[in-house]
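RETRY 2/3 - previous attempt timed out on the joint model. Re-submitting the same 1142-residue input unchanged.
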Amino acid sequence: MNLSDLLSVARGDSPADLVLRNGRIVNVFSGTIEATDLAIASGRIAGLGTGYRGKQEIDLHGAYVAPGLIDAHVHIESSLCTPPYFATALIAHGVTTAIADPHEIANVAGVAGIRYMTDAARALPLRILMMAPSCVPATHMETNGATLTAADLAALLADGTVHGLAEVMNFPGVIHGDPAVLAKLAAFAGRPRDGHAPAMRDKRLNAYVAAGIGSEHECTTVAEAAEKLARGLYIFIREATNAHNLHALLPLVTAHNSRRICFCTDDRIPSDLLDQGSIDYMVREAIGFGLDPITALRMATLNPAEWFGLHDRGAIAPGRLADLVIVDDLQDFRPRQLYVGGQLLVDRGALLPATWALSPIDASHVSRSINVDWESVAFAIPARGQRMRVIGALENQLVTEARLLDVTAHNGNAVADPARDLLKMAVIDRYRASGAMGLGFIQGIGLQRGAMAGTVAHDHHNLVVIGADDVSMMTAAHTVGAMGGGLAIVEGEHVVATLSLPVAGLMSDRPIHAVRQAYDMLLANARAQGSPLHDPFMAMSFMALEVIPSLKLTDKGLVDVDKFEIVDLFV
Amino acid sequence: MNLSDLLSVARGDSPADLVLRNGRIVNVFSGTIEATDLAIASGRIAGLGTGYRGKQEIDLHGAYVAPGLIDAHVHIESSLCTPPYFATALIAHGVTTAIADPHEIANVAGVAGIRYMTDAARALPLRILMMAPSCVPATHMETNGATLTAADLAALLADGTVHGLAEVMNFPGVIHGDPAVLAKLAAFAGRPRDGHAPAMRDKRLNAYVAAGIGSEHECTTVAEAAEKLARGLYIFIREATNAHNLHALLPLVTAHNSRRICFCTDDRIPSDLLDQGSIDYMVREAIGFGLDPITALRMATLNPAEWFGLHDRGAIAPGRLADLVIVDDLQDFRPRQLYVGGQLLVDRGALLPATWALSPIDASHVSRSINVDWESVAFAIPARGQRMRVIGALENQLVTEARLLDVTAHNGNAVADPARDLLKMAVIDRYRASGAMGLGFIQGIGLQRGAMAGTVAHDHHNLVVIGADDVSMMTAAHTVGAMGGGLAIVEGEHVVATLSLPVAGLMSDRPIHAVRQAYDMLLANARAQGSPLHDPFMAMSFMALEVIPSLKLTDKGLVDVDKFEIVDLFV
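RETRY 2/3 succeeded.
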């Protein structure tokens, strides 16, 4: 942008590229609606007020104009789509900036993964800012694809790849002053440093904040969020596919504290993004709950812009990016039109034929991420005892129960027993062909026959298999391996449904609508094979996450999360 | 500070340096009062909550604890004191951070002047952040002591001397895209860039904001301030000695917009600082006006901290600086105690014997700033006509009238005529001994006899003399010259009262109470010699400021500000 040209338009000396006439501008600074015109030039807002001439002029007939929405924290990988197709969904829903934590691909492919995401995000109208994944790997009790040190992250900051430090999940490391963790915090001094500290209170919270963490998106109750806000953390209210905090936290918001509150989606699968939406959905729900619309919109615009230091957006004001959402009804915030940088991208609520490059980004360095020693893969478990530790999965929860159950034995082996909802689970190192594999049992998934497998398994994303028999498990594992990563459901040697995720074993290379259809097929077949869960694939993806209680399985074995150590299957 | 040690205190594992028990903490994040304890270590807040142990423990018995106040914009030079003595006044009034624009000394001594201020501010408990003076010199129609280019300012930013760009007074240059001005703005991209745009509205305001200016402290009406706030400017409400905007602007503040509003003092003379106070006075007045006390305190703490990106202060929260004001009554905000970095500096409302170094700072490079060609100084004005242009000074206003009056002639010269309130005025180059001198006449100062002179004359700070006769004028000029700068009032050859300002001709090297006494003597004598003005020295200091309408006098002659050109005395 040539500033001199923009000033000429602002003064009224040169015509604007576009004048939007008769809008009702949502002014997030004053908290008022301004009925006036808007002049746009070089992708920026030149001025508000009457008397501007434009090369193009459009009469809004009193429609509302809001700043483009901002998602304060999202893992793009959870959409199972690459950034360009993820972007199509957000743009259609009025989101123009997303603060992304490429934590998943970083665990698979390290710096190369982050650079792939940056490259894939570069030419998009959705403005994606990458944060540096702070905890790769999550723990030493797993094999993952990469390790990121403070020096690695500092290099990413220095070359402009990342904007700040993403959720610091290693909160024990922060609180106890682990030098490696403090080095990461120090590398991002003066930059936004996001938090992740579920249920943390009192003195531990004081220490977490004193260390320099500035935001939190893991609150589940008003009391928890109010304490964290009072200690100085920005609160990101989250409404994810697998974590619904919005309605629980909306009562937190007051006229006095709303400036410190933002919205984020964290993790959303394609059907939620397409059917409900993104931050626009949260704004609608918040207004429906009773929040003043301008307050709700501030939480989706100015507040995150301030926390992230993005003073070029988050408001409709001279010099800021012309990222604008047009809606007809402020009480029912449904984007009818969307401008990004002054370009119309959405009309009548639908994405215009893509005006941006969806040409394939080179993903070769993050493909072929499956490297399994198939010779060593065998699922038989000799019964070394009568009682064993079993993972108890709970619907819609990431925490599990650690159950002690009788072994079902067959030919000297401990076996799955669908009649008891007892399935076998395996987690296979997919990075180093080391032959490392954890084996165990799980209740709560509910398959009565066949098996499911996937390479989406937080945070290490190894190959996870859950099944009712070893043949099905082997079919599922090989099916996913042959796709270069993905999700599959099988029955015996028959492959029932698949979703190929060739990009790092995490993301499809197809449009989000296609991904959604394939995913729906997976879910429908899991249901047909007996699972009562809303989303057993989502559930499976958290059964190997050894930082969330109580019992989890990694490629290194069963992890007692409370003791933070590997334990034997048999007791 | 060792972060690891702070975390240990925060966790409760090590004792704090100090625990303040039973305080009522003003929480500017939540907008609530929290009754709890406060643990302090290494000059920072370690944690809030009960159960902390301290090497020292003090019971506050329910007194209120607020964050240290922040002055968002001040010219220290206007206190006529050096930073250490200026600091004593602010600290006593609860101000712990001041954002200072060393504009005056920069006009006298350029980068050396700014470095003197930085050196003098370094060891003080008042945390002074310097902004880079943006407009030195103010115009080409004056001689001043230095020129600061964009490159000069960028160097000051690069070496950490300055925090941002101070008030950009050359608003025509901004609006019209003057390359030299845009270069200064570009040098401070991503940093706070303060504004100065009196009465600017509509399209010109759009352009000013689009250029990247982010704040404004020159508003005089609610309508003006509301428009500027809506365009995205932070509004600094000002209550200066010579500009009283507080009560006019308090009705601006709403629950929706208060986050964008701060307080500043801009220019305050010693008596105002000592008698009324500083930002504490504005907080008291705002609460008295009816503002919620926490809102008023936010405007004095969190809001300026956010605008200036000072995330280590502005709130009472873990990790932030332990800058704390203790008051007994939130409705009548009078600091009883003050802690800076956890050190008690004020008790029972009075400064404790200075615990910080008031040892003299080396001011040699900003002393001896008076360089006048005394041989060429002569005040006779041959009468070249019958009518002349006369400056019409108006009480408490910086603007003047341009009057056309008859000459009073004597022996062929145009002379002062106190009976008509017609005084002679001279502005003498004090930097280059060039002999440059402007001569003219002024009404409104009111001296009936004698003369006054001073080296405080915005923005160039040349030697200004106003008098009823040439002998008195010569005495006054030489008196000020002999002091190395200062203020004087004389009668004939008798020196009546003086205030020596050896530091750049702008600041005394004596304590603020002494400066105040000397200044009071100047005023009393000016009154005794006939001036009806509250402060004729303050008035005089703006009569040579050629950027404020309508008629002013510089060393280059009479300036018609509206035409922005030098004009002849006679018409």
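The two ends of chain B are 68 Å apart (CA to CA). Closing ticket.
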